[in-house]
Amino acid sequence: MDFRKQAPPPTPVTIRGADVEIVEDYRYLGVHLDCKLDWTKNTNAIFKKGQSRLFLLRRLRSFNVGRKLLTMFYHSVLESVVFFAAVCWGSGVKIADANRLNKLIRRAGSVLGVRLENLEEVSERRMLKKLLSIMDNPSHPCTPIEAHAAKDSLPRNAGNPLYRWQ
Q1: pLDDT tens figures, 97-156
Q2: What residues does the Alkylated DNA repair protein AlkB homologue 8 N-terminal domain cover (predicted)?
Q3: Three-class SS string for 141-161?
Q4: What is d(CA 56, CA 111) in angstroms, rounded to the nearest whole number?
């Protein structure tokens, strides 16, 4: 016998007189959004796409394509898939999912013969860049007056991708 209380169903959301349907997950612009903000389904889709692109990168290397062209292929084809909307999901992803994506990035780095930025570095840099762009825009609804004072207190090199928060 189960003695747990069952949560009441959420009240329906209405926008302009129309009820909004409640769904478990939704795909919007290629990003899988979950009702509990669990990014595992999104990470699985990214990993699957990334593996197929990594295969193409390896095939190019087997044809003795130059490193500059391989790097260009990585940035345009593989990196764009892996880091798409990382500002949205990058900090909320589970450690196991982040490790899977970082492993994919490390494999691509070994194909290229260079060390590539991992998921945490890229998402942190992009989130900081987004934050600074919001703070620079006085008409943005998320920019209170105090934000401009807070921006002045940030380190000068905070926008630099080589800068790491301590």
Answers
A1: 999 999 999 999 999 999 999 999 999 999 999 888 888 888 888 776 665 555 555 555
A2: 39-80
A3: CCCCHHHHHHHHHCCHHHHCC
A4: 11
What secondary structure letter does DSSP report for 5? P
Torsion angle defined by CA atoms of residues 132, 47, 27 and 122, in that order, rounded to the nearest 10 degrees: 0
d(CA 95, CA 92): 9
Q: What is the largest CA-CA distance in the chain?
A: 66
Size (the chain), residues:
166
Residue type, 31: V
Contact 130, 85 (CB under 8 A): no
Give residue 62's Cα distance to chain centre: 30
The model scores a pTM over 0.85: no
Return d(Cα 110, Cα 161) in angstroms, integer.
Answer: 22
**Residue 78, burial from CB neighbour count under 10 angstroms (0-12, 13-18, 19+):** buried
9-32 pLDDT, tens digit per residue, is 778 888 888 888 888 899 999 999
